[in-house]
């Protein structure tokens, strides 16, 4: 198998350079996993639009989804990246580990989001037990449900790309 070559700013189109700039503004660097999308002329733009879409979920709720789904998929890149982002959003290291373990006692709503996202990822959408009822009882509605599904799809895309490309991890490494 040949090694996947991560595109750099020197070998991408001007259109893609705009998205590299946006990513630098968001993260301080162009993460390798996002740069990998620039291998396709439209891939980076399409994924960037997916990444920055409007959502009824808060940033903390989206990071909860990112962490729990990346744990299900055992994606070391995404766990490393999203642990860093979760820290920037105010999660403690203990809370991040609790989210990854789906053992959230510190926030009822995040517990419901994590349980739903984990269930979706593990069963391909077949809801088990009272997870959906618990989600609604925590204060969420059908719009939130759709946004959780979109968030699961978003992180699943990154998990898949990393599994296939094994791009270098450019964040402090955490382990599955």
Automatic annotation (TrEMBL):
Pfam families: CMD (PF02627). Gene3D superfamilies: AhpD-like (1.20.1290.10). It comes from the Bacteria. InterPro entries: AhpD-like, AhpD_core, CMD-like. Residues 44-115 form the Carboxymuconolactone decarboxylase-like domain. This is Carboxymuconolactone decarboxylase family protein. It comes from Niastella soli.
